[in-house]
Recover the amino acids of this structure.
């Protein structure tokens, strides 16, 4: 069970306990002691300037929301599907899971984005989870650090941790799918075991052309092992006739300018 599902179950159980506790407080228990005449509380009546008594408002205890109201809250959700460049994606598949059943059950909904990449979901329930996808695009995990995502969960009947969602048709929730660019063909080399010396001596591994070779240098200090068998080591990887470029994100399809040099 996911963390979010556990939170939903906890909120449901807490609501039931609150309703039962309130009902118990309203039941009058008989007493074995001799009943005494109730003493009316003395409330000072404030009088305005004209001498007429002021009415004292009766205090009403707040009522906890019922389970039925939590799982039948009105859901209206506006979304927008676009690629990593901000262009709308038409025809994207939108799958929604609505938590509308006591005990963790949910209803499934499926729709598509229109020509502007927009879509709308209407239902009733406590929360709604939304996931978008389309063939030829890559999905992004929820909140991967870039602020972009292809999935999301939103609260309506009860706050499960992200606050009650406020739908706005003029400001829909944005879902992003990555559109891959032109992919260069991979040059595969035959698998081969290459022993690497531990003293830093370079080992060459041929690549696609004789002018490009992979150089490996390894330094191992296994003479000073820790109690669990671990020891310090270092590996250096370099390429003759080329170079290595760092890849910082999961979908770096666009080659950096230096890659062609």
């Amino acid at each position: 069970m996911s963390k979010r599902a556990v939170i939903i179950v906890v909120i449901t159980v807490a609501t039931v306990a609150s309703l039962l506790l309130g009902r118990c407080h309203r039941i009058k228990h008989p007493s074995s002691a001799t009943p005494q005449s109730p003493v009316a509380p003395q409330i000072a009546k404030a009088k305005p300037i004209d001498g007429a008594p002021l009415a004292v408002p009766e205090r009403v205890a707040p009522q906890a929301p019922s389970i039925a109201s939590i799982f039948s809250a009105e859901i209206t959700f506006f979304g927008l599907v676009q690629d990593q460049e901000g262009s709308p994606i038409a025809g994207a598949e939108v799958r929604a899971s609505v938590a509308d059943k006591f005990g963790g059950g949910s209803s499934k909904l499926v729709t598509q984005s229109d020509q502007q990449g927009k879509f709308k979901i209407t239902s009733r329930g406590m929360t709604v989870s939304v996931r978008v996808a389309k063939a030829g695009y890559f999905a992004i995990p929820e909140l991967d650090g870039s602020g972009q995502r292809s999935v999301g969960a939103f609260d309506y009947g009860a706050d499960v941790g992200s606050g009650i969602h406020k739908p706005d048709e003029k400001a829909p929730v944005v879902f992003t799918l990555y559109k891959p660019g032109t992919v260069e063909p991979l040059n595969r080399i035959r698998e081969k075991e290459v022993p690497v010396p531990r003293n830093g001596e370079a080992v060459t591994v041929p690549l696609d052309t004789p002018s490009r070779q992979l150089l490996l240098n390894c330094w191992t200090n296994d003479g000073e092992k820790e109690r669990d068998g671990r020891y310090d080591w270092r590996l250096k990887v370099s390429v003759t006739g080329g170079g290595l470029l760092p890849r910082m994100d999961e979908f770096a399809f666009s080659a950096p300018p230096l890659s062609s040099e």
